[in-house]
Amino acid sequence: MRFNITPVVKSLLIINILIFALDAILPMNLNELLALRHIQSEYFKPYQFITYMFLHANLGHVFFNMLGLFFFGPLLEQVLGPKRFLTFYMIAGIGAGVLYGGVNYYEINRVEKAVNEYIADPNPDAFVTFFYDHGEDYLKRTREYTRVFQFMNEQFPEAPNEPQNIESSIQIANNVYYIASNFSTMVGASGAIFGILMAMALLFPNMEVMLLFPPIPLKIKYMVLIFGGYSIYSILQDNPGDNVAHLAHLGGMLFGFVLVKYWKLPRYH
């Protein structure tokens, strides 16, 4: 099929780029309203399962997502037709958000349980365990990290029975849960884009694409396999400094796979 920009892909590119530009120039922070949050957060709204797909964290984030949409979206839209392609894009993106939200719900409930267990028996050793198992990653995002670290290693151990120290440790534990439940967000079209990549790998497995880094040709089925494998590896590594939502990538691929199989789309190449 001859490559050309298709109507839905063109519209999605314009919407994503326009929203990114507006987010950069408007005085209000669109992420506060539109990013996907933990479903028990006081800031969560159901529409965020859709709106998060049209926000991006930075220029590189929106550039690479839109690059993927620009190169792979038109061919898939020609195969599916505009309406079905838009349905595919939205389901893959929403599905990625739902999967991410479900796992996020489980993880934050673990934090809540750990907080309650600590409150039942607050002491320096238990606080250290709670800090490294649940609190460190969240507190690193705040200005309180250094103060909490000093409190944990100096102030609390020196006076473990001091009521003020016990109360401070409980307050810190509660703050960890508040940060975890209210300030964990996800943005980006990556889930939908990875759904498109999965569909392309299933429908055109032997189509060669030119990678950017390194600039070598590779069959798309192998490229998707590498992307999926890297996402799984990154999830297992659980690197606190990694802000990429690898689970959403896998979620998009999963929903893309299911849709292609459910619609019984034929293999083209």
Write structural notes for this entry.
The chain has 269 residues and is mostly helical. The protein has eleven helices and four strands. The chain has helices spanning 7-25, 30-34, 48-51, 59-80, 82-120, 124-139, 145-158, 163-183, 190-203, 220-237, 246-262; strands at residues 36-37, 185-186, 208-210, 217-219. Strands 1-2 form a two-stranded antiparallel ribbon. It has a two-stranded antiparallel sheet with strand order 3-4. The chain starts with 6 loop residues before the first helix and ends in a 7-residue tail after the last helix. The model has no long low-confidence stretch (mean pLDDT 91). Its main location: membrane. InterPro entries: Peptidase_S54_rhomboid_dom (IPR022764), Rhomboid-like_sf (IPR035952), Rhomboid_protease_S54 (IPR050925).
Helices and strands in order:
Layout: H1 7-25, H2 30-34, E1 36-37, H3 48-51, H4 59-80, H5 82-120, H6 124-139, H7 145-158, H8 163-183, E2 185-186, H9 190-203, E3 208-210, E4 217-219, H10 220-237, H11 246-262
Antiparallel strand pairs: 1-2, 3-4
Helix pairs in contact: 1-4, 4-5, 4-9, 5-6, 5-8, 5-9, 5-11, 6-7, 6-8, 7-8, 9-10, 9-11, 10-11
Summarize the structure.
With 269 residues, the protein is mainly alpha-helical. The chain contains eleven helices and four strands; from the N terminus they run H-H-E-H-H-H-H-H-H-E-H-E-E-H-H.
Tell me the radius of gyration.
Answer: 22 Å
CATH class of the largest domain: Mainly Alpha
Q: Write out the CATH superfamily name of the largest domain.
A: Rhomboid-like
CATH topology of the largest domain: Rhomboid-like fold
Query: Order of strands across the biggest sheet?
Result: 1-2
Q: Which architecture of the largest domain per CATH?
A: Up-down Bundle
Instruction: List low-pLDDT spans.
Output: none
Order of H and E elements: HHEHHHHHHEHEEHH
Strand content: under 5%
Query: Overall pLDDT, averaged?
Result: 91
The best one-word shape is elongated
Distance between the termini: 11 Å
User: How many domain regions?
Assistant: 2
Helical amount:
over 70%
